[in-house]
Amino acid sequence: MTTVPPPVAELSADEARRIALRAQGFLGAPDRRAGVRGVLRHLGQVQLDTISVLARSHELIPYARLGSVGRTTVEDAYWTDAHAFEYWSHAACILPVEEWPLFAFRRRAYRSRPQWYHHLPDGAYDAVIAQLRSEGPQTATELGGAKNKGEWWDWSESKIAVERALMYGEVVCTERRGWKRVYDLAERAVPSAVLHDDLDDTECLRRLVRQAGEALGVGTRADIADYHRLKTEQFDTVVEASGLVPVTVAGWSKPAWADPAALASEPRGRHRTTLLSPFDSLIWERARTERIFGFTHRLEAYVPKQKRVHGYFAMPLLSGGKLLGRVDPAREGNTLVARQVSLDTAKAVGPMARALREAAEWVGCDAVRIERTNRPDLTPALTAALT
Q: Beta strand pairing status for 256-258 and 218-220?
């Protein structure tokens, strides 16, 4: 582990929480002029996931910060004008195209593992590249089929080849069509200004650590490294040159680093009241969420139904800069169904009702129905607040 220099500031737990909220776009007036693209640039990435309840997670991220921006507007903002690309960051993520050079270190690392868990016959890789070159952007199905007839990972030769080319950076995902990746040659899809901006590994890591620190505001070594799934050892090699500064946070057992700009002014402004995707970068790291908000949350979609506590896709409620509860939503026609509402306190009733109404309106529902709550004594008040 790196030797930590003396801290430049001592933060209270509350100061660290508000710094994190502002850095993630939940404190202060939202930048509506910059819109969805501004959110993406500010966060540095938006995680993708297959689950769609209210909407897919990459739609929920800008909604949580900007409010009821149109869902078509969200997709267009991501995928038109060569503004973004999909690649492996914290997970599969949408990334602003100016970050293409920053992931050269990962593309090189993938190239050093040529088999990548799948055998690929001679010529299959070149055939896929040739087809994309001659026919333009295509899905795996259009390239020859995504799967054989076996299990989930029983990919076809063309699917293995194009995914390998994606990891190597010869191919880029330019959009999702019916949740299928659309592949194109990077030389055609990525603007030349960034396509050939070759950075060495150290510079890639330095910039990613700086970007993660700015997006988080303040974080531990593990927090910042995990933002783009860097190794903590990689963080150690570049943190001193990254421009982040060491700080201490009351109640945090480990050293922390902060964006100097985040320390330059006191975080002020209006707090957002909203429902958060479990894949939102404000809360995706469980230990950090517990440390900052005193709130334990995990995605239960992959937990057996009988063992779930809060529901399949429980979305935390953010209000007043705190996490006050959660809801497991579903849709039935024009009704948003709150299958399970968990309220931490009676003070969460009003914010939960407001967040449910806004979410319902955003996805085109005209009614909200509560199925069950963890606080039956609060159910009448919640129902009344909804109407």
A: antiparallel
**Pairing of the two strands 218-220 and 171-177:** unpaired
Phi, psi of 304 (to 5 degrees): -50, 140
Q: What is the pLDDT of residues 284-307, one digit of tens each?
A: 999 999 999 999 988 888 889 889
Residue 259 near residue 214 (C-beta atoms within 8 A):
yes
The answer to whether the CB of 87 falls within 8 A of the CB of 95 is yes
CA 234/CA 183 separation, integer angstroms: 30
Token pair belonging to 237: 């090699």
Contacts 24+ apart (CB under 8 A), 348-351: 348/317, 348/319, 348/324, 349/378, 349/381, 349/382, 349/385, 350/385, 351/273, 351/317, 351/319, 351/320, 351/324
| % of the chain with per-residue pLDDT over 70 | 96
Stretch 35-52: mean pLDDT, rounded?
Answer: 96
pTM attached to this predicted model: 0.93
> What DSSP letter does each residue of 315-362 carry, written as one string?
EEEEETTEEEEEEEEEEETTEEEEEEEEESSGGGHHHHHHHHHHHHHH
Which pLDDT belongs to residue 252?
97
Alpha-carbon distance of 273 to 325, in angstroms, equals 12
State the pairing for strand pair 171-177/245-249. unpaired
